[in-house]
Amino acid sequence: MDLSNRVAAPESKAHLGDAQDALHELRGAFEAFRETNDLRLGEVEQRASADVLLDEKLARIDLALDEHKRRLDRFALGARRPQIAGSPPLDASIAERKAAFDAYVRRGDAGGFRAAELKALSAGSGPDGGFVAPAEVERDILQRLAAISPMRSLATVRTISAGSYRAAFSATGPASGWVAETAARPETASQPLSELVFPAMELYAMPSATQTLLDDALVDVDRWVAEEVETVFAEQESNAFISGNGTTQPRGVLTVPVVADASWSWGNLGVLNTGVSGAFAAASPSDILIDLIYALRTGYRQNGSFLMNRRTQSVIRKFKDSAGNYLWQPPASVGQPATLMNFPVAEAEAMPNIAASSVSVLFGDFRRGYLIVDRAGVRILRDPYSAKPYVLFYTTKRVGGGVQDFAAIKGLRFAA
What we know:
Layout: H1 19-47, H2 52-80, H3 92-107, H4 111-118, E1 131-132, H5 135-148, H6 150-154, E2 156-160, E3 164-169, E4 194-199, E5 201-205, E6 208-210, H7 211-215, H8 221-243, E7 258-260, E8 269-273, H9 287-294, H10 298-301, E9 305-308, H11 310-316, E10 328-329, E11 339-340, E12 343-347, E13 359-364, H12 366-369, E14 370-387, E15 390-403, E16 409-413
Helix pairs in contact: 1-2, 3-4, 5-8
C-alpha cells in the first residue's frame, strides 16, 4: 500500500494558510504513520526484521509529522501573541512614557525619560546604563516569551522587585493529629522550615537596526523591540530552565541531584530506569511510562505533563497499548498540545536526546514543581557607535528559576 501521497510536505500546502488545514494535515500524516508502522510491525513479526524501504518511509513520515506539528504550532503561536493594533487609547502618563521611549530608540533623545523621572513616572538611569523600557514594552516581551517558551507555559511565574525571591518550605509538612472533643491538645513538634532562594540572573540580547529603519515613522518601535528579542530570550531561557548551572543562569530542573525514585528524598529528582542503557526495553517498552506516571502522588498526577524533545517524542510515537492503540495522539484542536496516555506533551529542544544514563523524559506538575521569577524592568541601552551604520540596542532582563517542589516532578533515565 502506497501511503506517500498522503504526506505532502507542508510547503506544498502553504497556500491554504489556515490553522484548521494544518491540523487536518497533521492528522492525515499521523494516520499514514500508524498504517506504515503497523505494516513494519507485521513484517517484524513474520520475518523477524522489517523491510529497509519501509523503515525509510516511516522515517520520512515521522519527519513530515514534525514539520506539520511545527506549522500548527506557528499558527497557535500567532494567535497567542499579544495584539498591539486596535488596543485601547493610552492615558496621558502612559502616552508620555511611550513617546519618551520612542524618541530614545529612534534618535537617542533621553530628555523625555529624564522629564518622566522628575515626575516619578519611570525608573531610569543615566545613558551609560540605559533606560528601563516602559511597562507596556516589558509586558509585551513577557507575553511573547510565555507563548513560545515551553517551561514558561508550564511553570509558575512570579514578578519580583528585589534581586531574589525567597520561599520558606517544610519537607515534612505541618504536624497534626486526632483528638477527642474534650481532650487536651498536646503541643505538636516544631515544624522544621527551610528556605529556597531564587536569584534573578541577567539575560541579554543585542538586536540591531539601521537608522533608516528607525527614522521610518510607520515602524512600531515597541513591537520591533519585542519581536527582535523574543526568540533569543526564549531560546536562552528554555535551555537554562532545563540545564542552567544556578550560578550565572537559573537552576535547571536537570541540574538538581538525581536519585532512584525508590530512595527519593527532598532536594533530589527522583528517576525511574528503563532497564536498558540508552534505550527503552525491547519488550513492552511503554510499561515504564505507566510506572513514571504513577510514580507521582495523585495530587500532582492530575495536573501532570510530559516534557521531552522531538527526537524522544519520535521514538515514543511508535508505542501501542495492549489493544493496539497508539499511546501518542495528535492535538485534538488548534492550540492544544499532543497527548501521551491522555496527558499533555510539551516539546523542549533543550531536553537531552536518548543516550546512556540520560534523563530524557520528565513527567510532573510543573506549575507546582518549578518556579520562574522575573525581576521587574527591561533595560535598553542605545549604542550607535560600535557597529556603524547599525544602531545596537543592548537589552537586558533579569530572570531566575529553580525547582520549588521536588516531589512534583519525576524523570525517566535510560539506564540499566
